[in-house]
Each structure stands twice: as structure tokens, then as C-alpha cells.
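Exercise 7b. C-alpha cells:
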């Protein structure tokens, strides 16, 4: 089994995450496995994107990177572009050119002779528009988008270290925002033809469906 690596990382930990590889006896090391595929996982916060990425790492040895690292880099090193953490509505739009170039660079780094040539990119700046832009450039993608239109404040409070110290009003506002973002994402996926998976009706079953969608389309 591949070593599980904490997915929510700080920027200094990015190199360790990106370079982590499963052992050579892992199933993903079979010749021809997952050739030239970038797995994109999008959706608002707290809907299961990181958990799904862990499933791909644990079951298939596919490493990856959360887009939080890309946002952190841009926020610190190139603040003039306006890409920053938070719930502001233009976050994904401002980040899209950089995300697409990151996906392009990652895809170009995959090689037929390397059995570990799949890679996961997950985060809330991964949108149907960004996936369409990357696909239009000929990048090999398998995409899925997650949402939860039934997210409650209790679900948020169950997440350790998230909104730590926030008051009840903040929890209610963020839960409502995630529900609204999930509804908008569902509509965007319906319009673009991308797969949207609702986690509110069944979290575990939804994640399994999302996992199957990614590996079957690879």
C-alpha cells in the first residue's frame, strides 16, 4: 500500500508531497497503468475532494497536489495577480490561467516509460471552465466535480482545525455558501457535460461513484 500523505499541506511541504512515490510493488507500477492522465477533482471546500485524492493515492498509488499550494504561492510571490485564499467570487477566474499552465507542465512531465505517470490536481479553483480550457489544449484529463447541497454547520464542525475559533454565525454563513456553490457547480457541469457527484445524499457512496468515474475515464 502506498504511504498516505496528509493532503492539506503548507507551502514548505509541497516538495515532499509532489516527490512522494509508492513502492515498486504497488499495482500502479505495472507497465501501461494510468498512462498520461491528469485527474482533476473540483468543488467547494469541505465536500470530499481531499478524501477522494487520498483514495487515488491509497488504492492506485497516484500522487498529486492540492491547488491550495498554487494559491499560496501566487498570493505570496505574485500578489499583483489577485489570487488569494478565501471565498471571494473571482478566485477561480483569476487563478485559471495559472492552473491551466500548471496542468500543462504536469502533463508534459508524464512519460510513457514511467509507470507512475498519473497525477491528481484537486481544489476549489478546479472548475468546469478550467477543465475545458485544459482539454482544449489537448491535455489528457479525467475529471469529476463534487458538491454537497445539504451541508450543515455540524458537518463543518466535525472537520478538525477548520474554521477553528469561528462563531456560530460564521459557520452558518460558510455552510450556506458551500450549498450555494454546490448548486451552481451542478448547473455548470450539466451545461458543460462534466460529471457532478452530490455528496449530501450519501457521502461514502458518492465518493465511490466519483472514484469510479475518474478511473473508468482514465
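Sequence design result:
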Amino acid at each position: 500500500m502506498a504511504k498516505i500523505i496528509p493532503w492539506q499541506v503548507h507551502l514548505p511541504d509541497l516538495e515532499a508531497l509532489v516527490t512522494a512515490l509508492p513502492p515498486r510493488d504497488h499495482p500502479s507500477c505495472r507497465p501501461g497503468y494510468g498512462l498520461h492522465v491528469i485527474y482533476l477533482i473540483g468543488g467547494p471546500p469541505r465536500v470530499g475532494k481531499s478524501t477522494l485524492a487520498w483514495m487515488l493515492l491509497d488504492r492506485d498509488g497516484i500522487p498529486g497536489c492540492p491547488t491550495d499550494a498554487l494559491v499560496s504561492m501566487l498570493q505570496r510571490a505574485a500578489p499583483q495577480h489577485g489570487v488569494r485564499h478565501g471565498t471571494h467570487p473571482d478566485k477561480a477566474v483569476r487563478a485559471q490561467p495559472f492552473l491551466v499552465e500548471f496542468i500543462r507542465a504536469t502533463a508534459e512531465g508524464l512519460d510513457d516509460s514511467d509507470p507512475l505517470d498519473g497525477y491528481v490536481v484537486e481544489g476549489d479553483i478546479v472548475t468546469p471552465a478550467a477543465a475545458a480550457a485544459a482539454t482544449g489544449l489537448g491535455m489528457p484529463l479525467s475529471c469529476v466535480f463534487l458538491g454537497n447541497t445539504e451541508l450543515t454547520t455540524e458537518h463543518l464542525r466535525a472537520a478538525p482545525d477548520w474554521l477553528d475559533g469561528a462563531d456560530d454565525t460564521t459557520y452558518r454563513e460558510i455552510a450556506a455558501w458551500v450549498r450555494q456553490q454546490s448548486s451552481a457547480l451542478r448547473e455548470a457541469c450539466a451545461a458543460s457535460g462534466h460529471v457532478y457527484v452530490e455528496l449530501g445524499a450519501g457521502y461514502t457512496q458518492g465518493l465511490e461513484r466519483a472514484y469510479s468515474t475518474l478511473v473508468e475515464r482514465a
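Instructor comment: Residues 147 and 182 are 5 Å apart (CA to CA). Residues 1-34 have pLDDT under 50 and may be disordered.
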